[in-house]
Structures are given as structure tokens and as C-alpha cells.
Design a protein that fits this description.
The chain has three domains: 269 residues, Alpha-Beta Complex (Spore Coat Polysaccharide Biosynthesis Protein SpsA, Chain A), CATH 3.90.550.10; 74 residues, no CATH class; 105 residues, Jelly Rolls, CATH 2.60.120. The strands form seven sheets. The chain has a six-stranded antiparallel sheet with strand order 20-21-22-29-24-27, with no helix packed on it. Strands 6-9-7-8-12 form a five-stranded mixed β-barrel. The model has no long low-confidence stretch (mean pLDDT 95). It contains eleven helices and 30 strands. α3 crosses α7. The relative contact order is 0.11. It is an alpha/beta fold.
Length: 471
């Protein structure tokens, strides 16, 4: 009975705005170290006993997931694509159905893609305990020993130890995120644990309990799986059926109702990195308690988290604040107000600010592009194409383009001719011409695109042929 890592990558990480946004959420960022959170998560489940992972993600993120796994040398992953976010229960049902097609007795290790764990060997010790109970038909979660009266986490009340699974306890009840006074009482009592959101169970057990307590979820997901389209490592779930599934968490759908719930108490340096305050707690601090990332200069600062994604950020005389600088937004707040970032993002959404959900740099399957300058009837972009990748064969009705290669090598297909461009060479693409850009080289291709015309929107693209199935 192999262990199948199941990585849930459907979150948007709103409370880590402006770094984490819907189009490029926190699991794809290197928040701690050089690997992204998705890569760190996948790296905890490799080696003897583990199969290749199953990743459940938003359809829009499919190529980000595939590329980051490839960069981390994680091969053979199956990527389940959600046409719409429906919370964790439908996502887990889809993963369990996929695995049960071949091996219903295999154990699923369900993990969020965006959590931090400092002590991976201790995590594996806890996993070994959980496996004993899971193979006996239990659904086991990991309860983190609390270190503070945290109001941002749900809590678990642990009961007596299971007689046939040493180190595994009955799960007596879940407690919703408490207020500060209640959290202090739970911490002082010593019987309560933080809810980590990790679970261990066989595919058969999960499906049986989902069928018992959330049959409408199972029915919708079975139909979505039957209608799924499979393309290489991608499994694209049927859109109408999956979107009809109730949006419900696995905690509410199953774990709060089942008699099979168990918990392994663990002390593994876990954090869900759900806020900038949590990231400060998990980060490496200097002598004055500051956590600094990127080009930052501090004078008389204390207890601050300061992160810059490119622009030099200076801080003088501030204490216990968060300052985050990206290329199109700046966040500044007291660290104690970290949970209020969601309110700010909600306001940005209400006023239809694009910064609420999108970065200036937009990621595509072939690479990325970034707007540099926009004026009346013209726009300048930087385009980066990964080695061996190419854009769709396309044309525009309202704009002409001029491409200048900054570094790398490009093959430009223009109205039936192939043009080889090297550094400092350029090509003109008149309005209406059929064209395509390709990087045949071994290094990234960077070029500057100058657009001119009456309409410069991204929807003025007529795709004629596309490697990534977007036609």
C-alpha cells in the first residue's frame, strides 16, 4: 500500500497581498528559502514508499504547477485541474477517485501547497504513526502543539490514545477560530492543538465517508471525473458537474461528523503562512528582530518584516510594522493588523483595481510578459520566452508590433517566412499579419515589444494554432 502525496494548490493567499494574488498566489513564491512553497511541499514526500504526487489546482495555474515541479525534479505527477474553486472536499474527492481507479487501498497524504514545516524528519515520524491508524480505516489529521494564543487557526480537542495505534489520539471535536480570550484558555488548558489541515487516509475510507456525509459532493465529482479530458499529465475535470458540487471544506463535510477521526499531536515547526505576521514568525530574524527580504535598508527598525521584490525600500525608526514593496503596489501596516489585509483586497476588488488579482508581470505557459509603458495608441512590454517554448500562431486586428531581441535567440514566423533574430536585431509585424515567436535556444529569450494601434487589449488576439490547447 503505497503513500500517494496529494497536494492541494487551490488557495489564493489573499492575506499575503500584494505578493500573493489570485493570478499568482503564495504557493508559487519562495517565501522561505529559494524553493517555492509548492516545491517545498512536494519535496517532503519523495523517496521510498512514496509515489509521484497528485496535485489539485486551478486550471489557470496548470503550467505553473508543471514547470515548478519540473524545476524541482519531481517527475510523473498527475495534475487535476479544477474548472472552479469549490473548497477542499470536492478537491479531495476528485483526488481519491483518481487514485481509487487503480489502488483504492493506497494511502493518501493530503497537504496544502502553501504551509511551512521547519522539522521534516519530525514530520515523517508523525506520518509513520498516522499510517498505522490510516491503514486500519481511520482518517488521521496532524495537530500542531500551540505556541501562542493564535486566533487565525482552528483548534482540535484531542481525546484518549487509540489502543491499536501508539501516538494517535481520538479526535474529540473541532473548534472554530477563537477570539483572543478563548484562544488563551485553549492554550492554557494543554489539551488543544492547532488544526494543520493535513490528513492521512486510504482512498476507500475517504470515499466511503464522503458518500456517507456529503453524497452530493461525491455525485458531482463522479460525473466530473467521467467527463474529464486527459492530456498528458493533466486531468481536466468536467466543468459543469464540478462547478455544481457544494463548496464545502473537508472539515465540515466529513471530519466534524465521522466517527473515524483521529489526530497525531506533533511539534514540527508548522505554520500555514496565512498572514504577514505568520511569515514574520517563521522568518530568520536579525539582532533586532527584523525579517528582511530583497533590497532593503534599515535604520533603528525593530520587529519589522520588510520585503521588496526589486525597488530599494528604506525604513527608519519603525517598530513592529510590515512593509511589502512590489513593482506596482506597496503595503504598510502595523504587524498586529496583518489579518486585515483581506479587507484591503476586498476594497480593491470593489473598486475594480486590477492590482487586487493580477501582477504587472503576467505568466503564460511559454514564459511571461510585463507592461513597461502605456500611452495613447502605444504600449511597451518586456517578453520572456523559456527555452524550447513558443507563443501561439496568431494575428491582431487593431495593432502592429515591433520586436527587438535583448538577449537570446528568436525564430519569428511571419506570414509564412521564418526569420532568425539574435541580440540587438528586430522585426516589424504589420497589422493583420500571421505571426509566432519561438525560442530555439538553451537560455531564456528576452525581447522588447512595442505595440501601436487603435486598441491594445489582450483580447485582440486571434489564435490560429497553439501548443497549449488555448485555441
Amino acid at each position: 500500500m503505497a503513500i500517494v502525496p496529494v497536494i492541494l494548490s487551490g488557495g489564493t493567499g489573499t492575506r499575503l497581498w500584494p505578493l500573493s494574488r489570485e493570478a499568482y498566489p503564495k504557493q508559487f513564491w519562495p517565501l522561505l528559502g529559494v524553493e517555492t512553497m509548492l516545491q517545498q511541499t512536494a519535496g517532503r514526500a519523495v523517496g521510498d514508499g512514496f509515489t509521484a504526487p497528485v496535485v489539485v489546482c486551478n486550471e489557470a495555474h496548470r503550467f505553473l504547477v508543471a514547470e515548478q515541479l519540473r524545476e524541482a525534479s519531481v517527475h510523473g505527477a498527475r495534475i487535476l485541474l479544477e474548472p472552479a474553486g469549490r473548497n477542499s472536499a470536492p478537491a479531495i474527492a476528485a483526488a481519491a477517485l483518481l487514485i481509487a481507479e487503480q489502488a483504492p487501498d493506497n494511502v493518501l497524504w493530503l497537504m496544502a501547497a502553501d504551509a511551512a514545516i521547519a522539522d521534516v524528519p519530525a514530520l515523517h515520524v508523525a506520518l509513520e504513526k498516522a499510517l498505522v491508524a490510516a491503514r486500519a480505516g481511520r482518517i488521521v489529521t496532524f495537530g500542531m502543539r500551540p505556541t501562542a494564543p493564535e486566533t487565525g487557526y482552528g483548534y482540535i480537542e484531542a481525546g484518549s490514545e487509540l489502543p491499536d495505534a501508539p501516538g494517535v489520539m481520538h479526535l474529540d471535536r473541532f473548534i472554530e477560530k477563537p477570539d483572543a480570550a478563548r484562544a488563551a484558555d485553549l492554550l492554557a488548558g494543554g489539551r488543544h492543538l492547532w488544526n494543520s489541515g493535513m490528513f492521512v487516509a486510504t482512498a476507500a475510507t475517504l470515499l466511503a465517508e464522503l458518500e456517507r456525509f456529503a453524497p452530493e459532493v461525491v455525485r458531482s465529482v463522479i460525473t466530473a471525473m467521467a467527463e474529464a479530458k486527459r492530456d498528458l499529465d493533466f486531468v481536466r475535470l468536467g466543468a459543469a458537474a464540478f462547478s455544481a458540487a457544494p463548496a464545502v471544506s473537508i472539515d465540515y463535510a466529513v471530519m466534524e461528523k465521522t466517527g473515524l477521526a483521529a489526530v497525531v499531536p506533533a511539534d514540527i515547526g508548522w505554520s500555514d503562512l496565512g498572514s504577514w505576521a505568520a511569515l514574520w514568525e517563521a522568518g530568520t530574524k536579525d539582532a533586532r528582530g527584523n525579517v528582511v527580504t530583497g533590497p532593503v535598508s534599515l535604520v533603528d527598525a525593530e520587529g519589522c518584516l520588510v520585503r521588496s521584490e526589486g525597488i530599494l525600500t528604506g525604513v527608519i525608526g519603525l517598530k513592529d510594522v510590515v512593509i511589502v514593496t512590489t513593482d506596482d503596489a506597496v503595503l504598510a501596516m502595523p504587524r498586529e493588523r496583518a489579518q486585515d489585509v483581506k479587507k484591503l483586497v476586498d476594497e480593491l476588488r470593489r473598486t475594480k483595481r486590477p492590482e487586487a488579482t493580477e501582477h504587472r508581470r503576467v505568466y503564460r505557459p511559454w514564459g511571461s510578459y510585463e507592461g513597461l509603458i502605456q500611452g495613447d495608441r502605444f504600449q511597451v512590454k518586456r517578453i520572456q520566452v523559456r527555452p524550447g517554448q513558443k507563443l501561439s500562431l496568431q494575428k491582431h486586428f487593431h495593432r502592429a508590433e515591433h520586436w527587438v531581441v535583448v538577449n537570446g535567440t528568436a525564430i519569428v514566423h511571419r506570414d509564412g517566412e521564418n526569420i532568425l533574430l539574435r541580440e540587438n536585431e528586430s522585426v516589424y509585424l504589420p497589422l493583420g499579419c500571421v505571426h509566432r515567436l519561438e525560442n530555439p535556444g538553451m537560455i531564456p529569450l528576452n525581447l522588447i515589444e512595442v505595440q501601436s494601434g487603435s486598441y491594445l487589449g489582450e483580447d485582440d488576439i486571434v489564435r490560429i494554432e497553439d501548443t497549449y490547447g488555448r485555441c
